[in-house]
Description:
By secondary structure, the chain is an alpha/beta fold. It has helices spanning 27-31, 47-59, 78-91, 105-117, 131-137, 175-191, 194-202, 213-232, 253-262, 269-286, 292-304, 316-323, 353-363; strands at 5-9, 15-20, 37-42, 63-68, 98-103, 123-128, 142-147, 150-157, 162-166, 239-240, 243-244, 335-339, 345-349. The model has no long low-confidence stretch (mean pLDDT 96).
Amino acid sequence: MSRDQVVEVAAERPYQVIIGHRLHDRIPGLVGEDARRAAVLHPPTMIEAAERIVHALDVSGIEPVRIDVPDGEAAKTAQVAARCWSVLGTAGFTRSDAIVGLGGGATTDLAGFVAATWLRGVRYVAVPTSLLAMVDAAVGGKTGINTPEGKNLVGAFHEPAGVLCDLDTLTSLPLPELRSGLAEVVKCGFIADPEILSLIEADPAVAPDPAGEVIAELVRRAVQVKAGVVSADLREATSVGTRIGREALNYGHTFGHAIEQHERYRWRHGEAISTGMVFVAELARHAGLIDDALAERHRSILASLQLPTSYRAGTFEALRALMAVDKKSRGTTLRFVVLHGLARPAILAGPAPELLEAAYADIC
Length: 364
Ligand SMILES: NC(=O)c1ccc[n+]([C@@H]2O[C@H](COP(=O)([O-])OP(=O)(O)OC[C@H]3O[C@@H](n4cnc5c(N)ncnc54)[C@H](O)[C@@H]3O)[C@@H](O)[C@H]2O)c1
Ligand SMILES: O=C(O)C(=O)C[C@@H](O)[C@H](O)[C@H](O)COP(=O)(O)O
Ligand SMILES: [Zn+2]
């Protein structure tokens, strides 16, 4: 892709997702004219990119404050958020100052949360560096941290001022992380844009190539799906009966989040969501909502990307308990995002235990 692509997000505060190359110079502009300081939160893997951003801020007359956070899921804790607040307080961050989140989805979730909570909300710029963060985590304003009881249980909706997806950064991303990001891309294919599935099925081996044309098209399409959904239902408030808004983006996540926590975050998010999508496809098949071919398409496309499609037997009770704290639950009723057909997401509330057990047996 030679030119930058721009996807507009028309939520409460409209902003752009820019997908392209060498985008870091745009950060000072997004941080805003009023900002005197900007904090750059990043994991150890992103130190060189962080230094470049720090330099760009500095020459623009914005005082940079670099905040090193732990890698991956270890960043999404109350303790790490509290350390960030402490740095901001010591540096005298005011409401006109800004936060930049540079890294994978774990970092952008934390950075967005710190921006949402510092002084009840300051400007936030997302600079996702993993495929998963570009296509999903950095777009849409869901920010948050985990608690010992579950995934993403504390958070806020806080939209970024802009999102910069610099495809050049994907060249250093390890292949398993690229594959993990593709799970969320496949999710967008099943819930809204089947052309994504066709593009991957045409040649699954080229999909994760960070320098390829296909990945650029997949990023654009997945961001477009996410932008469309969050523009219509930012706060995940549209859900009447089986009608569904933002909850559609949670496809595969009820079971997937339970796996992540059960595995103490040793599975990547996309890997857990991959198995979660196969589980929920089997659930929909047993409920008579989709046919065998559509359920099988989940397995085949995810397996072709070398993503997991199964899980250990003998863990259902533990996973069932973890699913109970999913944000889609109401009282004691589990609610799953299912398909009623390709690109027709809906809610299945309170499926019978036999259906859940049959779907679990299918993935063991
Ligand atoms: N807020 C949302 O809407 C949303 C959506 C999807 C996922 N998420 C969250 O995102 C997280 C998963 O994101 P992730 O898969 O990016 O995981 P991650 O942030 O843990 O990043 C994965 C690994 O890749 C490394 N990395 C990132 N960019 C790199 C690069 N360019 N080069 C080399 N290494 C790089 C990271 O340091 C880390 O080790 C989960 O916590 C998930 O819950 C949030
Ligand atoms: O943006 C959304 O909405 C999503 O559900 C996207 C998911 O891919 C993402 O993993 C999100 O963090 C899950 O949110 P949660 O509300 O289930 O914690
Ligand atoms: Zn996800």
